[in-house]
Amino acid sequence: MRKIVLAVAVTLLLSACSSKSGPYQAVETRVIDERKDNAFLAYEHSIEVATSEAQISPLYQKVIAACKADTENGCLLLDSSIASGRYVHARLSMRARPAGVKKMMALLGKEGEVTSQGTKVEDLGRPVLDSRKRLEMLRQYQAQLQELEQRSGKDVDALIKVTKELATVQAELEQATAADALLMQRIDTDLLNVAISAEGKQSFWTPVRRALGNFTDNLSEGMANAITALAYMLPWLIAFVLLFPLGRKGWRRLRGSPRK
């Protein structure tokens, strides 16, 4: 009996130690960058960090503050959310120059345990080339229209048509310029998606406390399911009670009937 108790105690101790250290092995933060070979690559990085539940909110606020303070690398916070329900976790999305992304990932690796990291690269060479060609064509067309506008002189009808076409070309030129600027922003700055959670960093008793906290909810849910199952079974039970005597009586008649 003592051997069994000792074995159980050792098992619980090992479980507690393993839950504190987490099932993950720390991943070294490393940013892939191949811009030297191609000047039109857009990078999107993702990183998942594990820390204790008590440190999720402070780390979340620290990352936001670090992004706002990094004006040198033009860090822009695009999205941020934190959940404090049953499973505490936080998510952030930001855009910054490559140096700013490296700085942010170094901060996350220092403050938490990096459990996952990835990088996606998109080649924007063709879209940029098409955008530049469209801009050049619109600018040439605009110059031709401006020359026609000067030649129109006193021809009011021609002047109205040229002016109207110039306004259309100007609007298209502004749209094309904005689209080209957006492409260059994706190239000059990197997107970083951050996920912070306590997975693998929970204490030994955290699941037990969570289960006790949800006991009444689970009890009421179980009672509701039992009542629903009873509602489905009740018609069949009534049918069985009513039909079983008739079936039994008929069976007796069949057995008691004389054979020919």
How would you describe this structure to a colleague?
The structure is a single chain. By secondary structure, this protein is of the alpha+beta class. It has helices at about 1-20, 55-70, 100-110, 125-150, 155-190, 205-215, 215-255; strands at about 40-50, 75-85, 90-95, 115-125, 190-195. A five-stranded mixed β-sheet has the order 2-3-5-1-4. Strand 2 and strand 3 (about 90-95) form a beta hairpin. Helix 2 packs antiparallel against helix 3. The longest helix has about 40 residues, at about 215-255.
CA-based shape: elongated
Report the uncertain regions. Answer: 1-28
Question: What sequence of helices (H) and strands (E) makes up the elements?
Answer: HEHEEHEHHEHH
Mean pLDDT: 81
Rg over CA atoms = 35 Å
In short:
By secondary structure, this protein is α+β, with helices and mostly antiparallel strands. Helix content is 62%, strand content 17%.
Detail the topology: elements first, then pairings.
Elements: H1 2-21, E1 41-50, H2 53-69, E2 76-83, E3 89-96, H3 98-111, E4 113-123, H4 125-152, H5 156-188, E5 190-197, H6 206-213, H7 215-256
Parallel strand pairs: 1-5
Antiparallel strand pairs: 1-4, 2-3, 3-5
Helix pairs in contact: 2-3, 4-5
Characteristics of this structure?
260 residues, disordered N terminus, 62% helix, alpha+beta, five-stranded mixed beta sheet
